[in-house]
Specification:
This protein is mainly beta. Among the domains are: 96 residues, Cytochrome Bc1 Complex, Chain D, domain 2 (Orthogonal Bundle); 138 residues, no CATH class. The chain has eight helices and 38 strands. The longest helix has 19 residues. Bound molecules: heme D. The site of heme D has 21 residues, from strand 8, strand 12, strand 18, strand 22 and strand 26.
Length: 568
């Protein structure tokens, strides 16, 4: 299958209408020369909803373009030769826009004719010729108004009231159900399912391992206490209209003290009390890109807590600026701004946890930040659209410590050599920050790779590959002999569930606490039965399938111990 096909499928799934084409235009809106098509209030509401759910991820809320094209009614920009280029959705007009939305384009626009109805396509064609709806800003006061402290700290248990092995609990996103399943990893049974709001994106653990934090695409943060008889939501707060990331304070002396959350809209990060979610501070990320142009909507992508300093690494997508936010004095907040490359997305630590590696995905690069010196350690060129999740660390037989990332846009897994202070690894220094090997995959469309210090395997999914066979399987490389073809495990078939019309994507391998098992989400349609499929890491034999009817559209899984300690 071709790379472009895979990307198109991925973007459709993620509801991002334009791909790769059209990096940010430094365009500004012109006076509309022609009137935008009229719309009823009801049609506008429909357009607004569909735009948020399907388009904003790629084109941005202000429609100035990011990984997708500028979709303002009219824009102009001055080219390097001094000439002025003009464009806009008004120029294209309703019939042409309807065709683009329905059938896609060569430039990467996916077809929506099988996702949206004819009426919805017509509404969207007219909606994007109207001036963008700008959602409201979200202030500290708005956060305070949304804050719900359900159980104050002094009314919570003083010790763990259950006998569950909390280290091996899996927090599993039930994406379209707007819920989180907490699954007992020892018994492989659902412990509790909790409401968490629309499409939780990630779960993270407090430094102590007692609290689970989730954040959803609706900007809602949920704080869950694992010390009760059954997991209990003790506080919630809204960060804004659209969010993807949270992390807690993990530096010695600050354990469980603070939480940081990053939003796509408004473009800002917020700091809260870790145990109550009481809002403390909001900081905008609006500013200039690494090329010096102002960007009004630089969204916060991944965030990670350093264990070396009281700092968070905050990756700002559109500007390519990596912020080191020092939380030791919130009133006199010190921030280091590190230039990297545009379109920062997800990433993880190297084995020493000194360097944070983050994909600048549409720039085809991985940036490495040295959290000890507070400087950029490297910008590594990679194949198309690196997408590491958190990546995977292991010792390569020939090149020493490496960090692995998969690619959404290419059929490889890249292994990047990472520095090590151990004397035995000095011989690998010349390879540091180079791609030392690319492991061939069966196609593009990987999202997550994973390993564990006790494992000799590297697990990789391929959920965005257009071929059913590939998307429903996972690939297991032997770390002792990387020249071997990966073992293919057909997760959908192994689940024993009947085949469905919609693909059931095998996504996000996650290890159990002891590294003996790998859990895979079989992510089916909203009305289909999905499952969690568990393999023995040593034998690669199927161990258990959890196909409870409550398992609706499972995606990310976060093992308490591995997430708490960044084990990957
Ligand atoms: Fe994710 C992590 C953004 C679509 C599952 N995703 C992240 C992070 C970001 C991000 C910024 C890093 C958070 C961090 O570490 O602090 N994801 C986005 C998008 O903008 C995008 C492309 C489109 C969107 O509108 O959200 C997107 N992501 C998806 C999905 O469709 C996935 C596959 C299924 C789902 O649940 O939505 C998905 N993203 C995940 C998962 C992680 C993640 C499971 C955490 C990986 C980990 O191991 O930590």
């Amino acid at each position: 299958m071709t790379t472009s096909k895979s990307i198109i499928k991925f973007m459709r799934l993620l509801a991002l209408p334009l791909v790769l084409a059209g990096l940010l235009n430094s365009a500004h809106a012109l006076e509309d020369a022609q009137a935008a098509p009229s719309m009823t209030a009801q049609e506008k509401e429909i357009g607004k909803r569909i735009y948020f759910e399907r388009c904003a991820g790629c084109h941005g809320v202000l429609r100035k373009g990011a990984t997708g094209k500028n979709l303002e009614p009219s824009w102009s920009k001055t080219l390097p030769d001094g000439s002025v280029q003009e464009g806009g959705t008004l120029k294209l007009g309703t019939p042409r826009l309807e065709k683009i939305i329905a059938y896609g384009t060569e430039g990467g626009m996916v077809n929506y004719d099988d996702i949206l109805s004819k009426d919805e396509i017509n509404i969207m064609a007219r909606y994007i010729q109207n001036v963008p709806d700008v959602p409201p800003e979200f202030s500290l006061q708005d956060m305070e108004d949304s804050w719900n402290l359900i159980i104050p700290v002094d009314q919570r248990p003083r010790k763990q009231l259950n006998k569950v092995n909390l280290k091996n609990i899996f927090a599993i996103t039930l994406r379209d159900a707007g819920k989180l399943a907490l699954v007992d990893g020892d018994k492989k049974e659902i412990w509790q399912v909790l409401d968490t709001g629309y499409a939780v994106h990630i779960s993270r653990l407090s430094a102590s391992g007692r609290y689970v934090y989730t954040v959803g695409r609706d900007g809602l943060v949920t704080l869950i206490d694992l010390w009760y008889e059954v997991p209990t939501t003790v506080a919630t707060v809204k960060l804004g209209a659209d969010a993807r990331s949270v992390d807690t304070s993990k530096f010695k002396g600050y354990e469980d003290k603070y939480l940081i959350g990053g939003t796509y809209w408004p473009p800002q990060y917020s700091i809260m009390e870790g145990e109550t979610l009481k809002p403390l501070k909001v900081v905008s990320t609006r500013g200039n890109t690494v090329y010096g142009e102002y960007h009004p909507e630089p969204r916060v992508a991944s965030i990670v807590a350093s264990m070396t300093k009281p700092e968070w690494v905050v990756n700002v997508k559109e500007t390519g600026q990596i912020l080191l936010v020092d939380y030791s004095d919130l009133k006199n907040l010190k921030t280091t701004t590190i230039e990297s490359a545009k379109f920062l997305h997800d990433g993880g630590w190297d084995a020493s946890k000194r360097y944070f590696l983050v994909a600048a995905n549409a720039s085809n690069k991985v940036a490495a930040v040295d959290t000890k010196t507070g400087k950029l350690a490297a910008l590594v060129d990679t194949k198309k659209i690196p997408h590491p999740g958190r990546g995977a660390n292991f010792v390569h037989p020939a090149y020493g410590p490496v960090w692995a990332t998969g690619h959404l846009g290419d059929a490889v897994i890249s292994l990047i050599s990472t520095p090590s202070e151990e004397a035995k690894n000095a011989k690998y220094k010349e390879h540091n920050w180079k791609v030392v090997q690319e492991l061939p995959m069966l196609g593009a469309g990987n999202l997550f790779v994973k390993t564990h210090p006790k494992s000799t395997h590297l697990w990789a999914d391929l959920p965005m590959n257009p071929e059913r066979e590939n998307a429903e399987s996972v690939y297991v490389f032997d770390l002792k002999d990387l020249s071997k073809e990966p073992v293919v495990l057909h997760v959908a078939k192994d689940s024993g569930l009947p085949e469905t019309k919609a693909l059931r994507r095998a996504v996000h391998p996650e290890f159990s606490e002891d590294g003996s098992e790998v859990w895979i989400s079989l992510w089916g349609g909203k009305t289909d039965q999905s499952a969690i499929v568990i393999y023995d890491d040593k034998t690669l034999q199927l161990k258990k399938v959890i196909s409870d009817p409550r398992i609706v559209t499972p995606t990310g899984k976060f093992n308490v111990w591995n997430t708490q300690h960044d084990v990957y």
